[in-house]
Amino acid sequence: MQSKYLILIILPIFLTGCVEQPEIKFEKPTLQVPKTQPVVQKKKGSLYSMRGPSLFADKKDLQIGDIIQVRISESLNSNTKNKREISSDRNANLGGGLISQMDANVPLASSVKKYADKFNSYAGVNFGTESTSSNTGEVKTNLSETFSTNVSAIIEETYQNGNYLIRGTKEMLIDGQKQSLVLSGVIRPYDITPENSVSSSQVANLKILYIKDGEEQDVMKVPWGMRIIKTFWPF
């Protein structure tokens, strides 16, 4: 009997030790090889061309593989309130006697009616149903989040109009807390500052993935048993 209790005590400790610890894989990044730029045919004529660089803007001439710093400053605010009330009342009655008069204008004799009513009271049909249902739901959400950081991204592709497709990753592992950040999007060369940086608000098709892994995330995570109960709980 004591061995069973000992197993129950040792088993959780053993399972806790088997939990995978967060780690970072230091792999060699894939090198981005610049594409061969087509030879620009110079044409005689005006010094200013719509296809050439702008005379009034500082356009960064970057290539595939160059690094750009992205200043991320995003905020998410949401305040919603939904309320719904649904109610339903239904009543149905069905009744009738097996013996009834043939013509409503011709009344039955008193003796016949007496026996007919007595027979219907025993052999008549009487059926009734009643149902009531109600459903009330109210949802309130109030969300306010801000996220600010800097990440260096690499130019992976150059479009025909001069825009750049960038992608950057950032991973940190400090005291068992792992933080991973992945960013991708399209930027214009005119939005790049002289410090070779761009704001996240100027990135088109911006995608940011931020993942935490560690003890802090384990505290905020809903236990798997509770998630299963919420999934199959019908009420």
TrEMBL record:
<dbReference type="InterPro" id="IPR000527">
    <property type="entry name" value="Flag_Lring"/>
</dbReference>
<keyword id="KW-0966">Cell projection</keyword>
<protein>
    <recommendedName>
        <fullName>Flagellar L-ring protein</fullName>
    </recommendedName>
</protein>
<keyword id="KW-0969">Cilium</keyword>
<dbReference type="Pfam" id="PF02107">
    <property type="entry name" value="FlgH"/>
</dbReference>
<dbReference type="GO" id="GO:0009427">
    <property type="term" value="C:bacterial-type flagellum basal body, distal rod, L ring"/>
</dbReference>
<keyword id="KW-0975">Bacterial flagellum</keyword>
<comment type="subunit">
    <text>The basal body constitutes a major portion of the flagellar organelle and consists of four rings (L,P,S, and M) mounted on a central rod.</text>
</comment>
<dbReference type="GO" id="GO:0003774">
    <property type="term" value="F:cytoskeletal motor activity"/>
</dbReference>
<dbReference type="GO" id="GO:0009279">
    <property type="term" value="C:cell outer membrane"/>
</dbReference>
<keyword id="KW-0732">Signal</keyword>
<keyword id="KW-0282">Flagellum</keyword>
<dbReference type="GO" id="GO:0071973">
    <property type="term" value="P:bacterial-type flagellum-dependent cell motility"/>
</dbReference>
<comment type="function">
    <text>Assembles around the rod to form the L-ring and probably protects the motor/basal body from shearing forces during rotation.</text>
</comment>
<keyword id="KW-0472">Membrane</keyword>
<keyword id="KW-0998">Cell outer membrane</keyword>
<comment type="similarity">
    <text>Belongs to the FlgH family.</text>
</comment>
